[in-house]
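Quick board copy: two proteins, each given as sequence then tokens.
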Amino acid sequence: MRSSAIIVCLALVTTMANAQPRPYTPELSCAAVRGIVARQGAVVLATSPNAYERVFLDSGACQGEVTSAPAFEPTLDDPNCFAGYRCKQRNNDGTGTK
């Protein structure tokens, strides 16, 4: 019975950690956003009430069919704050097959 209670407590702690709100960039300074990305290495930032983006500290975080691109986010003091890098689909130059 005691081990069941421990498992339930661990599940609640994990759920609460996953439910943390995303940093809302329009309410933060550019330095604060950059600091969050630097500390966490990768973070999902809310850029408006309905939009969010995963931002990475390192441009090498994107692999496979995606490549890195600068992530400029709106902040309290800079509407185009360089926060780190985001992953985006590689451009198709039209020479590939469908």
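And the next:
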Amino acid sequence: MDIDETILVDDINSVGNPARRAFFKGMASTANDIRKGIRDLADAGSPFSIAECQRLITRQLAETKF
């Protein structure tokens, strides 16, 4: 990509920078895709995926403020 890594890291760490928004959007999209894959495997009966879904749900509930 021919990008200076130091500048990129600084941009990602700068609130309001477009690179920061793009980074977090990409991270959220990737995490969502991984969760969908885990859910699909759990639907198919994968014991690991079922346990992972339960762990993710528990974590999400713990992080939610009611």
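Board note added afterward: The chain has a mean pLDDT of 91.
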